[in-house]
Amino acid sequence: MPKENQWHRLPVSLTELCIDTTLRCGQSFRWRKSGADEWSMALHGRILSLRQDRTHLHYRSIFPSSKEHLGLSTPPSSVASSPAKTSAGDDTLSLLKHYLNLSPNLGDLYRQWSTSDPHFRKTAPKFTGVRILKQDPWEALVGFICSSNNNIARISQMIDKLCREYGPLIGHLDVESEEDESQRIAFYDFPSPERLARKGVESRLRELGFGYRAKYLQQTAVMVAEERGLDWLDELRNPESTGRGDAGELVEGGREGYRKAHESLLELQGVGPKVADCVCLMGLGWGEAVPVDTHVWQIAQRDYKFGKGKHSSLTKATYDAVANKFRSMWGKEAGWAHSVLFTADLRAFSERLVAKLESQDVFEAVKVEADGAIEPVTVVKTEIVKDKRIKREFEEEERNVVEIQQNVVKKPKRRRKN
């Protein structure tokens, strides 16, 4: 039987971390709901589950039993996994603090970004607690290759298929469905580059619906597994994010280490500027990386006066101009601030930006029953105009929503029809 740890708690306020937002905003694609307000995923050889209240983050880890470990043909991730451990040797707390990037004071960062940008100051209060995760670089690379011309829900489905097909089984959890029925769900860790570099992977991924991305994934896996190694990816990390040194002062275009990492990633198959910046930001710790896709381009046009003159379309020059504009406002963590605004513009969180205008119209009417009885009724017609942008992740259309509700209030009097 797998070893199941008890729930532990860590003092973290919702303004410093909101897992319901951070885990759903397009950074990591393997977290899944495993209960009411509970999220779980397989991470570094264990199933990690999270809950949160207003003052604390609650967590537990479930390690596979030795019997389950015998069935592992590949390591759970590019970081060596841990065997089943005693509670005294459980490193989940340190892993969690690192993965959730809990060291920076988020309140201070939000205040800094709000001081330099009125638009951020207006939006941020509804989206507190958004943190940039410190993910495994290999997982981030694969995940964002899958993100090309895609949306968050479909990327998550693809990564789930990838892990089920090629990742090691870590264990199972009983998960409650929307119908309040318990289901036994398997959790798989992320496959290694060596596993995805094998022959036949491309054709199998095409069968699983990866399309043209299948070729990119296998070719990149071959380059990492057989030519460059995971140490190469690790060397591209921001030394400040790993405690190995100082990365220098921010300059236009980003620090030298960031620019080197970005250019190195562009040598891989399926990696363009946006994917490279996503990996730099969410896998390598380069906070100044600003991924600019069509979604961010819409934000830049709508809120930051891009879209005219020489920056009327999203060219390479415009991409760099948008990123430099954000870096000039928000500094070394410009990518983090940009991710808050990106999250605010996602359809999944649009309800937080709703402004309601409500009007009521009350009038009398009569209802004729089947037996000929006439029943007076009062009809209350309520019209609610919700001023919000309804948009799928990568659609341009925005519109207001009008909801009409009509309630009938019966009066007690009944009269026979003459």
From TrEMBL:
SMART domains noted in UniProt: ENDO3c
Catalytic activity: 2'-deoxyribonucleotide-(2'-deoxyribose 5'-phosphate)-2'-deoxyribonucleotide-DNA = a 3'-end 2'-deoxyribonucleotide-(2,3-dehydro-2,3-deoxyribose 5'-phosphate)-DNA + a 5'-end 5'-phospho-2'-deoxyribonucleoside-DNA + H(+)
Domain of life: Eukaryota
EC number in record: 4.2.99.18
Keyword Kinase: no
UniProt-listed CDD domains: ENDO3c
Chain ranges of the HhH-GPD domain: 146-346
Subcellular location: Nucleus
Keyword ATP-binding set for record: no
GO MF entries: 8-oxo-7,8-dihydroguanine DNA N-glycosylase activity; class I DNA-(apurinic or apyrimidinic site) endonuclease activity; damaged DNA binding
GO-annotated cellular components: nucleus
Keyword terms of this UniProt record: DNA damage, DNA repair, Glycosidase, Hydrolase, Lyase, Multifunctional enzyme, Nucleus
Biological process (GO), any one: base-excision repair, AP site formation
SUPFAM superfamilies xrefs: DNA-glycosylase (SSF48150), TATA-box binding protein-like (SSF55945)
Family listed: Belongs to the type-1 OGG1 family.
PANTHER family for the chain: 8-OXOGUANINE DNA GLYCOSYLASE, N-GLYCOSYLASE_DNA LYASE
Protein name per its UniProtKB record: DNA-(apurinic or apyrimidinic site) lyase
